[in-house]
Design brief:
The protein has 19 helices and five strands. By secondary structure, the protein is mainly alpha-helical. The strands form two sheets. Strands 3-4-5 form a three-stranded antiparallel sheet, covered by helices on one side. The two termini are about 45 Å apart.
Length: about 475
């Protein structure tokens, strides 16, 4: 296969979370002689596509022709399974909509650069050897900007996150990881002063943020929510390490995690994604064929709508509309077929589930290209999140046990399961002074020592502090 085509498909696959990728009608089958840059109109491109003997062009035309029938069959299968195809948009009052509060927080930060957290602040934690002066400099950012961080607390404490109709979310959601890291930093600073209970209360805003974004969209919210939870669980572990065994704090941490666990499983979110995605693509049909250029440019950056490809948007012929609508049908049909496979895979557990997700193959589909990596990421992110949940809950159990008895438990309860292999979490202890709890991770080989952001481990007491990297000081 053409290397240029393979590279573009990889880019598309990593970015596409909706079947809007079907709008890549030209880009999906890129490669001489079917580069859309060679055609001044959609009509010319369609004509060239239908007469081409290029194998990928032939495959694309066949899938487009079969699109309406394929879509009808896949929709029927969804109904047979009891899956709704109609998106239901809940009514969230402005006063309870975190999206609006985050947007205000972002505007406040932009108007006051001194309130923006630096790299040093976003890295705060007990694993690095911060000087008193460095800690004080970050504390000053919070102390001098109570209105900005008060707005962040307000936003993080609201129940729902919903975009107003017609609004692009990227401007807000792109800042939410920063928000989670700033809450982590604030929690660390509070714990550093010895107020561990308040530190837990502040850090609890992080998991609430994760549940907010999950309420706003299905898989997009799942992926972002998993990242926010990961930052938050790390912060809760930091508090336990800084405080040491303490029944009240360890119970508070465990309760925080249990009461903010995601209410929906990955399978639930995959099901919910179906009506979301179908609604998105159906809405785009209303401004076809302008969507052919504009939609692709927005989703993948492949087209430059304002320059040489813009002329394709001026084709309003019946044949152009038919082509694009059949294309959308074909893309939706293939999306549904693969999404149903993913739903079945999500019903499984451990390595069996991972193998089922990895078996979902879109690589030979001329319209969607190679987006199988998306399903692999879903499984990996879900397992990573569950491993972090299990580790922080197991850590709270072990630390509380130590606080009550003077020794760490000889073994953890078998209920603390590593999602990557379906076995109890690995656990090491010398009995009285130290313990190590971890997940083996996606490779099955992680030993709990040097932790990366994707890995889950708890070590008490904390390992020796590392020097603060130079780039954190910039």
């Amino acid at each position: 296969m053409n290397n240029k085509l393979t590279a573009k498909r990889g880019k598309i696959g990593l970015m596409a979370l909706t079947p809007a990728i079907v709008l890549v009608c030209a880009g999906a089958a890129v490669g001489s002689p079917l580069d859309p840059a060679d055609y001044k109109s959609l009509a010319q491109y369609i004509s060239a596509l239908k007469t081409s003997t290029d194998p990928e062009a032939v495959s694309l035309v066949k899938q487009i022709k079969e699109g309406p029938a394929s879509l009808a069959a896949e929709r029927a299968e969804c109904r047979k399974r009891g899956i709704s195809l109609v998106q239901i948009r809940p009514n969230v009052p402005d006063s309870k909509n975190a999206y609006l509060a985050y947007a205000k927080w972002i505007d406040m930060r932009k108007s006051n650069p001194a309130s923006q957290m630096n790299n040093l602040g976003e890295s705060m934690g007990p694993r690095l050897a911060f000087t008193p002066e460095q800690i004080a400099s970050v504390q000053n950012i919070f102390d001098n900007n109570p209105d900005v961080y008060g707005e962040l607390h307000l936003a993080a404490g609201l129940p729902k996150y919903q975009l107003p109709v017609g609004i692009d979310d990227m401007g807000v959601s792109a800042h939410l990881r920063e928000a989670a890291r700033e809450i982590h930093a604030e929690s660390y600073l509070i714990a550093n002063k010895g107020d561990y209970s308040k530190a837990v209360d502040v850090q609890a805003l992080g998991p609430n943020m994760a549940n907010q974004v999950r309420s706003g969209s299905a898989l997009g919210g799942f992926l972002l929510g998993s990242a926010l939870d990961g930052i938050s669980y790390s912060g809760l572990q930091d508090i336990m390490v800084m405080d040491g065994p303490n029944v009240a704090i360890d119970e508070q941490v465990a309760n925080t995690v249990r009461t903010t666990l995601p209410s929906e499983t990955l399978k639930d979110l995959l099901i919910a994604e179906i009506p979301e995605d179908l609604a998105f693509t159906d809405a785009k049909r209303s401004d076809m064929p302008a969507t052919v250029a504009l939609g692709v440019e927005r989703l993948t950056g492949y087209f430059n709508y304002n320059s040489q490809y813009g002329s394709m948007a001026n084709d309003g012929t019946p044949s152009g509309h038919q082509f694009v609508n059949d294309l959308a049908d074909a893309g939706e049909a293939h999306f549904l077929k693969q999404q149903l496979k993913a739903i079945d895979a999500a019903s499984l557990t451990g390595p069996t589930r991972t193998a089922a997700f990895n078996a979902i193959d879109l690589s030979n589909h001329a319209i969607l290209g190679d987006v199988a990596a998306i399903y692999t990421y879903m499984d990996k992110d879900d397992n990573e999140l569950k491993s972090k949940e299990q580790v922080v809950l197991a850590a709270a159990y072990a630390m509380e046990f130590k606080a009550k008895t003077g020794s760490f438990p000889k073994a953890l309860p078998a209920s603390f399961i590593d999602p990557f292999n379906g076995k109890p979490l690995p656990y090491e202890t010398d009995g009285t002074t130290s313990c190590l709890i971890y997940s083996v991770g996606p490779t099955g080989k992680y030993d709990g020592k040097t932790r990366k952001s994707s890995e889950a481990s708890f070590q008490y007491p904390a390992p020796p502090k590392q020097p603060v990297p130079d780039w954190f000081l910039k």
